[in-house]
Amino acid sequence: MSTGHTPKRTPPMLRAQAVGARLGGVQVLHSLDVQFAPGGWTSIVGPNGAGKSTLLKVLAGLLPHQGSVWLGERLVSEWPGRARACALAWLGQSEQVVDDLSVLDVALLGRLPHQPWLGKPDAQDLAVVEKYLRMTQAWDWRHRSLGALSGGERQRVLLARALSVEADILLMDEPLTNLDPPHQADWLEIVRGLRAQGTTVVSVLHEVSMALQAEALVVMAQGRITHHGACADPQSHRALEQVFDQRIAVHAVQGQWVVIPTPSPRPTSSPSPISPPPQAPL
């Protein structure tokens, strides 16, 4: 797959300063500072419950938060809605979309920020959507309903919708959900093409080997950033292994960084026998 030869652009800087967030009355992000290199790809990784998805939603302006999120020289909250939607595209985790919509109509939702109020898609919108449905190998299903697709097929349609925005910054939360290995490789090629065009990509990934294909790595634990560095940096590898309790190891395989699971340590002593419950007096 290729994203074509669109001229390279310079997107605005996306950064967060002293950002915190609460969910259900619980503080889940704690005064985070992070910025993302324009035109680069950053992966966010960490164990379950680390706050990765929450951080991404805060960056997208989808959750109330403490602190500030900046897009260029303006707070994200100060951008007009249409302008922000054109600059920042979002692919969420397990997104809810009406199953009766056709694949084509779902992908066309990505063009709404470019259309006038109550306007209809024009020839340019249709051409853009066709480009990305073909890129994600979903064009042949364009007249089928979303509900008739498998989980992996559905994910490829939602990816096409996010790509159809043609935003300066693309935020993706678990974009590889339900994708088989060949289509994960296709996704990687798409992201590399976006980087070549100057698009900023920020992705939350559980596939840690895939995350290491990015330029930069943000490691999170318990609502805090424990490390932010280059994916090729040995310090990033040590931080990654540490956040997963040394249950993974980073190795170089054929010129790529690969994560291999390691067995859990065996107990050094036998567990204490369980005492029987006391008998009730007769």
Q: Can you describe this structure?
A:
By secondary structure, the protein is α/β, with parallel strands linked by helices. The protein has eight helices and twelve strands. It has a six-stranded mixed β-sheet, with helices on both faces. A four-stranded antiparallel β-sheet has the order 2-1-4-5, covered by helices on one side. Strand 1 (14-23) and strand 2 (26-36) form a beta hairpin. It is globular and about 75 Å long. The N and C termini lie far apart (79 Å). 35% of the residues are buried.
List low-pLDDT spans: 1-5
In total, how many beta strands? 12
Can you write the helix and strand succession as a string?
Answer: EEEHEEHEHHHEHEHEEHEE
By oligomeric state, this entry counts as: single chain
Give me the Rg, rounded. 22 Å
Instruction: Tell the overall outline.
Output: globular
Structural class: alpha/beta
Q: Please state roughly what percent of the residues sit in beta strands, choosing from under 5%, 5-15%, 15-25%, 25-35%, 35-45% or over 45%.
A: 25-35%
Strand order across the largest sheet: 6-7-8-3-9-10
Write down the overall mean pLDDT: 90
Percent range of helical residues: 25-40%
**First-to-last CA distance:** 79 Å
